[in-house]
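quick one before i forget lol
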Amino acid sequence: MNDEMKSLLAAILLSAIVVLGVNHFLPAQPVDEPQQEEVQTDNNSAEQATDDKNTQIVYASVEETLEQDVRLPLKNNVISGSIRLKGARFDNIVLSKYKKTIDENSANVELMTPAKTENYFFAEYGWLSNNKNLKLPTAETLWDVEGNQELTPQNPVTLVWDNGEGLKFINEISLDENYVFDIKQKVENNSAEAVTLIPYGLLSKMVNPYSMERSVVHEGFTAVMDEKLKEIRYGNIEDTAEKFSTTGGWASLSDKYWLASFIFDDNFKAKLNLRKIKERAFQLDFTGAPLQIQAGNSADVITHLYTGAKEIKLLDKYSDTFKKFDLNVDFGWYYFLTKPFFYILDFLYGIIGNMGWAILLFAFILRVFLFPIANKSYESMTKMKKVQPKLMVLQEMYKDDKATLQRVTMDLYRREKINPAAGCLPMLIQIPIFFSLFKVLNIAIEIRHAPFIGWVKDLSAPDPLTISSWAHIYVPTMLDVGIWPIIYGLTMFLQNQLNPKPANKDQARMFALMPILFTLMFAHFAVGLVIYWILSNILSLIQQKIIMYKNGVK
């Protein structure tokens, strides 16, 4: 592979990283939005959500809102919170294992919060009927609690409401040891006539502005319907409802690290509706098959609700029951690499106890695995560097005869037993490795807030010790580079010094600028990725230097 092809491949890789980095880490600044109006859900129709267009909402705090309602507490080892008994609404789910920030005194992540609070998120279940005169539970219905007064894995709860006209509505709710609720919606018909009812559930969510922007991690609607994956980003969800149908499967609204998901048993037939209610407010709802309940009889349906973190190993465990549930995590194009990379890192973390050192050990193992390929590549590059003076002579002799120059160059390669293409193979292999590891560090909640050494307190975030932080001066965002990215740039510069120099002056200038450009890009990547690449570059330098010494090349 000649210098021009190497330059092309390097330019492709650089361009991909530039586009990726700019889109993800340097998004357009959000504009100030007008105050949002309150979204109200009409429980008599899962197809509708109404807005009061003449009123502006004043958001209440979560604490104030929780104090206003009668609530049923819930708790296990990973979540706590409560169910609002008015409307039987799941609107207070706190994740006990996760903090909002790296500060030890930071509050825990609130996944679900009540309506009328900023960035609310809640789930509710109910019944529909074509008979408008039928009295059904609504968001204002106050449910009674029978038996247990707290929902735990050991103590399921039963919520009951009687409409006073012969229909008794019962919600039996259980909670497992993690994030899954089982909801059994039951109706007892003690009236004199048969009734036809349709079960429904809905998720209503106000999305953070940054989740609306495009990034390398999918945020929005994710579903497996009839065993086929469907994804729609929040920014692409329209005002007009998109309608889907499925037998079994699941449907989620998810953020980078968190999700809430409706999960259906294999024989459950569901119709799904997804729409944007207004700016940043979205609703996902489902309806089940109509149930005809004869007088004196009862009927029930069972669905499941996941409200928690995207813990990859846990989602894999649930996938044994809920098909392809692990696809709630955006593994990207290189699924076949991204997921194994995560499990290798997690295994190494289990041995070492620090994710930063696990990443470095992973880099070393990967370098050992790629050693034979890299060895051939560096031997080829070393030989090319050795014959570079001869190439320059040929280029000067046949500078006006490109065809002859190409022929004599190939003859030289054959005499010296050089394979020019071998020098590009490691670069081609590194592209999927880079993007896969990049994905892992962005999607794996196990790496969120994982500390390393010194000032690095979160391997999933960019290096915080930037020029502006230690020099206390203003530096434009694009140029505000951390210590680790600077070290990375130096290793790349040293690596370039060992490579054959392109004969073309323009190509030579481009290669000289690449360490600077890559340093600026890597400054906005997860510092864990930068640390990985530094060690990878250092190992490459050592390997390449040894091969050059063996071949007598300075």
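fyi The mean pLDDT is 85.
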